[in-house]
């Protein structure tokens, strides 16, 4: 052995396409995965949980943790968790922060992952965030993850060393689709829609980004949609 | 008005002596307080919640939020939340991290405070953490709070500016007692014991630190203890 690194990793699996690819990449790099799913009172939480389970089964991930942070709905401020706020419809040209932004969601999620990582001795946290094509959420930017990694290492035991890995950070949705197909990532098991749980709505901004990714990659989304999207 | 600053602040109130003083200091500085209490499946959560309510009533804080992060008990790793691990007894000379350390607890707590601050437009988060006399938890050090503040501001909207204020960071428990008495902070309403909910045990490390603070300040703790502590 030339080098010995800690190959135990936590991977955040929301159930979306990005997190499925992220798990596939981490698996392909030989990490021993532990899967963390966060439920934060979002509209489609049951459907996302099913996608999480399906993806874990696909990758034979045994160690799983589902954490409920429904206080984010009590805090409100996002159309994802706050029922009276309308989910924003697709406006891919807009550069403003959409109503589906859940304030500092990734800070909350990474804090949970850090607590778990410190207890089980995982040295890596994989998160499938994307900066460029991510709807403009401030907590999806590479700068944030670097800054948070510093905070993590200054707030845990001296012997704890945790790296936050964002393999998708500079990918576009088009590249996510292409790379997922190349790596046989089970996109048919993933779920992206923010609005419905049976068939995807095809109208919310998450569906919009997903569909555009497939379209630009020249591929067909295996999911069913409520309206004809082709 | 020479300067106009955002005077809305979130104050973390666990119910302990330090958080009571922290609320008193923030109130004394003219901040408009919103109180955040975190329940993380600790043994004494009902008693701590009562202390939180009593302190909020004392300072006439109307806006209150209680967040349940019981996933920390699922994660385990601490005697505070993990019932099979024995709560460490007082060893004030030890420099190692005690069994009551909840991994990255302050990272989790500050993430919740940040989400709430961004939604309600609070520019300050007060937390009564103490570095020198704090049992040696890594997420109680000033370096951690500075680092976390940077992460907060890189992970929230551009117009959001949040300062993390730690007015007790360099105080000892002796000074907490002295300052609390000077500012008429209601220490009789606070609760520190990690182990029991009726009378304080006087044996866990939190009781130990509290009692030593009173002793060194030459004052008497108004709380009742199970064993004779004077």
Structural descriptors:
homodimer, five-stranded parallel sheet, 230 residues, alpha/beta, 7 helices, Rossmann fold
Q: Secondary structure elements and their pairing?
A:
2 copies of one chain form a homodimer.
Chain A: E1 8-12, H1 17-28, E2 32-39, H2 45-58, E3 63-68, H3 71-75, H4 105-120, E4 124-126, H5 142-154, E5 163-165, H6 173-182, H7 205-217
Parallel strand pairs in A: 1-2, 1-4, 2-3, 4-5
Shape of chain A: globular
Give the helix/strand class of chain A.
alpha/beta
Cα end-to-end separation of chain A: 52 Å
N-to-C series of helices and strands of chain A: EHEHEHHEHEHH
The strand line-up of the biggest sheet of chain A is: 3-2-1-4-5
What percent of residues of chain A are in strands?
5-15%
CATH class of chain A: Alpha Beta
Averaged pLDDT of chain A: 88
Structure characterization notes:
The structure is a homodimer. Chain A has helices spanning about 15-30, 45-60, 70-75, 105-120, 140-155, 175-180, 205-215; strands at about 10, 30-40, 65-70, 125, 165. Chain A is an alpha/beta fold and about 230 residues long. Chain A has a single domain (about 10-215), classed as 3-Layer(aba) Sandwich (Rossmann fold). In chain A, strands 3-2-1-4-5 form a five-stranded parallel sheet, sandwiched between helices. In chain A, helix 5 (about 140-155) links the parallel strand 4 (about 125) and strand 5. The longest helix of chain A is centred in the middle third of the chain and has 16 residues, at about 105-120. Chain A is globular. The interface between A and B is large, with 42 and 42 residues.
